[in-house]
# Entry
Amino acid sequence: MTGTVNPAELARRLDDARRERREVPPLTNELPALSVPDAYAIQEEGLKLRLAAGERLVGLKMGLTSEAKRRQMNLDSPVYGVLTDKMRVQADGVVSLAQGIHPKIEPEIAFRTARELKGTVTRDEALDACESVFAAMEILDSRYRDFKYFSLPDVVADNASSSLFVLGTQEHPPRAMDLTRLEMKMFVNDALAHSARSDAISGDPVLSLVQLCELLAKRGQVLPAGSIVLAGAATIAHMFQPGDRVKLVVEGLGSVAVSAA
Ligand code: OOG
# Structure
């Protein structure tokens, strides 16, 4: 243990854990000085491994954009991760939980952009760049032991715990409704498990997009046209169990469901 950060080596360690479905200790156990920029460098190396394996980058996810999630994870600022084509599950699809470690599912709102967004953008500019908004869910699956990490760098390095995502089949133009006032209800096997209003996400899910552009700009990156963006969970995550059918209903956006086997 040298204490120096080798992003490619650390990314490989997390990627092996993901593919082999094994838990690893948080990186900060070994590297207490790991910084958030170091962690994004590890995340970027992790994306390179996925691209080398034939996956395609399709978008980004924001995490820790709601107070409920920040409290649940005891972390204080939003982070982002990457989404690839292989991570997408079709609506009403079945996910084999044996493919994961300790998956959790959470209710989200997603956007698809039609134009590139770069650096500091206003809410209106972000909204104008979006062609569609969807109901969505993200399946998280931290690679860390017991889904526990104690610092932001750990979660960032681990692609913000992302595993899979599912988008509703109904697409809506983002200006067709007030995106801050949509009731979101997540049902597990027909019983209401979690609910929130959409402004639980960054006060306004569009502001997650604005924040994402700022975070990307810090790394000299832009949000490409055609990106799917998950705005972050509105409520705490639900432990996904075999046999669960989870359905999210978002007022005005329709519903989306996924089952676990
Ligand atoms: C971190 C990722 C959180 C969200 O939507 O808040 C997240 C985690 O909970 O492991 O994706």
